[in-house]
Design brief:
It contains 12 helices and 11 strands. With 351 residues, the protein is of the alpha/beta class. It is globular.
């Protein structure tokens, strides 16, 4: 299938999504098929939290606007320019999608279709409505895509390659079950921030976005801090204050109360601001409403540690290294920012 036509279909999808923000949903005359889809999508967004309690309007609209930005033609052109898609022999690529945050599997879906392959999609029960709606919109723009998009609720069969995302436990199952197929198998990863005490208040406010966006459920959410020995957390907590209203969301509040109680009953020493706990812990994966921290004596030691643990790390947030992600940007990846640093397009090109 012509990748240019497919690209233009995604551009139109981006224009459609750009009409929907938390503050307003404004129908525009230049957007195709609004008569069929605008009100239906508006209704679906309103129902998202009933489908998944973590999908609050703020989080869902953030995801929608992020994809509206990513699907602008200049972004798609920059991404696609790195690849020669002229000689792709179409294959069927199975996609097993996660459901921890809204539209988390959409990048894989986009990559498969824009590279000229066919997508056989198994959605998570936690996020099964949004991507199907967007697929229907794409098919209205480019009817030939109906031959390239299949959703299934059962076991994946008759596919040539697989991209599967899950926990460390499910990844072991995927690796065994799909061992005879070309595959990308994604496991649990977490993101970290390295602080040195010289961060501005704005840096730390932005770090709050990296921690709290999607309630901390994504692999790009910061769940671990590295701080110099003797670090004073006062400035950190002042930066977090803008996120204080998160405690009024019942599911988050329940997790905060539960995890705090578990920590206290275990006699762990905590730092607490009444909506976030900090616990000194060597692990990377902290529970919802908590961030782990660890002291360091030298930045060189941290660099070596993270290099050795690279398969557990998704993002490193800091002002200290050129390759780090700036504060506040972890949930705004570009199309060429691949999960686990595995180039999905290169994988798809050699099938």
């Amino acid at each position: 299938m012509n990748s240019i036509n497919t690209k233009l279909s995604f551009v139109e999808l981006g224009k459609f999504l750009s009409q929907f923000s938390l503050d307003k949903q404004q129908e525009r005359a230049d957007v195709l098929y609004n008569d069929l889809y605008f009100e239906k999508f508006k209704d679906l967004l309103a129902l998202s939290q009933s489908h998944n309690g973590w999908f609050t309007p703020e989080q869902v609209y953030f995801a929608v606007q992020s994809w509206a930005e990513a699907l602008k033609e200049e972004n798609l052109d920059k991404w696609m320019a790195a690849y020669d898609l002229s000689d792709i022999e179409p294959k069927i690529v199975g996609l097993i999608l996660a459901g921890n945050i809204p539209l988390v599997g959409f990048h894989d879906f986009l990559a498969v279709l824009i590279s000229g392959h066919k997508a056989l999609v198994k959605t998570s029960s936690n996020d099964q409505h949004l991507i199907k709606f967007l697929a229907n919109y794409l098919i209205s723009i480019q009817p030939e895509l109906s031959q390239s998009i299949t959703f299934t609720d059962g076991r994946l069969e008759n596919f040539d390659a697989i991209i599967a995302t899950g926990s460390n436990n499910t990844a072991r199952y995927f690796e065994f079950y799909f061992k005879h197929k070309p595959s990308i198998i994604r496991k649990n990863r977490n993101s970290v921030a390295i602080l040195d005490g010289n961060e501005t208040h704005e840096d730390l406010v932005n770090l709050g976005e990296d921690i709290f966006r999607y309630f901390g459920l994504g692999c790009r959410n910061v769940s671990k801090l590295f701080v110099p020995r003797g670090y004073n957390f006062d400035a950190f907590f002042k930066g977090m204050y803008e996120q204080k209203d998160v405690i009024y969301y019942e599911k988050y509040s329940n997790n905060y109360d539960y995890n705090k109680a578990v920590f206290l009953m275990s006699n762990f020493k905590l730092l607490d601001n009444e909506f976030l706990t900090l616990k000194e812990d060597p692990s990377y994966a902290s529970p919802i409403s908590s961030v782990f921290y660890e002291y360091y004596d030298s930045l060189e030691d941290i660099q070596e540690r993270l290099k050795n643990d690279s398969e557990q790390i998704q993002c490193i947030v800091s002002n200290l290294y050129p390759e780090s992600i700036p504060f506040g940007q972890t949930q705004k990846p570009k199309l060429w920012d691949y999960a686990d640093n595995v180039d999905t397009m290169k994988f798809l090109m050699v099938l």
